[in-house]
TrEMBL record:
<keyword id="KW-0479">Metal-binding</keyword>
<dbReference type="InterPro" id="IPR004372">
    <property type="entry name" value="Ac/propionate_kinase"/>
</dbReference>
<comment type="function">
    <text>Catalyzes the formation of acetyl phosphate from acetate and ATP. Can also catalyze the reverse reaction.</text>
</comment>
<feature type="binding site">
    <location>
        <begin position="208"/>
        <end position="212"/>
    </location>
    <ligand>
        <name>ATP</name>
    </ligand>
</feature>
<feature type="binding site">
    <location>
        <begin position="331"/>
        <end position="335"/>
    </location>
    <ligand>
        <name>ATP</name>
    </ligand>
</feature>
<dbReference type="GO" id="GO:0005737">
    <property type="term" value="C:cytoplasm"/>
</dbReference>
<feature type="binding site">
    <location>
        <position position="14"/>
    </location>
    <ligand>
        <name>ATP</name>
    </ligand>
</feature>
<dbReference type="Pfam" id="PF00871">
    <property type="entry name" value="Acetate_kinase"/>
</dbReference>
<keyword id="KW-0418">Kinase</keyword>
<keyword id="KW-0808">Transferase</keyword>
<keyword id="KW-0067">ATP-binding</keyword>
<feature type="binding site">
    <location>
        <position position="384"/>
    </location>
    <ligand>
        <name>Mg(2+)</name>
    </ligand>
</feature>
<feature type="active site" description="Proton donor/acceptor">
    <location>
        <position position="148"/>
    </location>
</feature>
<comment type="subunit">
    <text>Homodimer.</text>
</comment>
<dbReference type="GO" id="GO:0006085">
    <property type="term" value="P:acetyl-CoA biosynthetic process"/>
</dbReference>
<dbReference type="InterPro" id="IPR000890">
    <property type="entry name" value="Aliphatic_acid_kin_short-chain"/>
</dbReference>
<protein>
    <recommendedName>
        <fullName>Acetate kinase</fullName>
        <ecNumber>2.7.2.1</ecNumber>
    </recommendedName>
</protein>
Amino acid sequence: MKILVINSGSSSIKYQLFNMEDESVLAKGVVERIGIDDSFISYENGNGQEITIEKDISDHKEGIRLLIDTLLNEDYGVLNDMDDVEAVGHRVVHGAEEFSGSVLIDDKLVKTMEDVADLAPLHNPPNIMGIKVCQELMPDKPQVGVFDTAFHQTMPEKAYIYALPYEFYKKYGVRRYGFHGTSHGYVSKRAAELLDKPYSELKIITCHLGNGASVAAVKNGKSVDTSMGLTPLEGLVMGTRCGDIDPAIVPFMMNKLDISAEEMDTIMNKESGLYGVSGVSNDSRDVEDAAAEGNHQAEVALELFDYRVKKYIGAYTAAMGGVDAIVFTAGIGENSIDSRENILEGLEYLGLKVDKEANNCRSKEQIITTEDSRVKALVVPTNEELVIARDTMEIVSS
């Protein structure tokens, strides 16, 4: 069975085509700068051929049509016919309480997704757009929605309710939802496999650390808490997001700067985090380079990032009554040797000892603590697209 996975953003479409017989990637790439000058599609097939096609791509329909043409190309394509594709799996950021798992999509479900889109106005509308375009261009293909929020629907009420008037939750759905659920679910299960222990008996803290970053507490195979909230803004310091702050800062700065709620929201989401503190970049690698050259703000930004992760690890260890494994994933988690070491430093009281030689690794599965460590720390590269493909195959098959 071949499954096409689509992650549709406001001006881009990431895609992967899987052969589910062996879960190999037949082709992958991204359509970039949709509706913007200098748009293009990048493509790589399983044979290692890499192609970039520069073309005016005015909308998502044209982008997905170009994607299909690329897969069918007689020189570098991997399909003889689109009939070879059994189904399409879509990443959808926010499922609210309506979706606690992946679903087969029909018009009614699209309407439900649109009804909760105001909870993720930057993400859900382009996700839905990608679904509608695929329904139009591939009407005979089952479409499956896989939600970032679904994995966290097992959180108890005490973890997801905010201490606001309860009617905010009942009338407007204001609660903690959490995100990166596909990633947290995948890497926590994979960690259990690498440790050769039952997933249902472990207490695992997963750290998805990238431009967007979150931590999750996974107890006995279920998410019981996570750092992101109603939106992806809450929690850790991120590339451009501020994470946890005193909420009184919002009206205070709006009055000081005489700005609107929308402008303040832009500052917190796009001008804060590593970028806001360092004044250098939202890319941790650039911030690390600046810190190495003695840039004080860059040094503070990195220390703040690592410290916030360490605090959440401590909090979730307490919430679960202990921890068996701490997992690092995503761009920073998989690649920043220094960040992992700084985060784990001081956690020796848990029975955790970092193996510096083992920690000297990037983007590969690795246990990075010593053999005698009671608590294990691991690097597990995430694979959200594979999870989407697996869920899609399971739903279509049943």
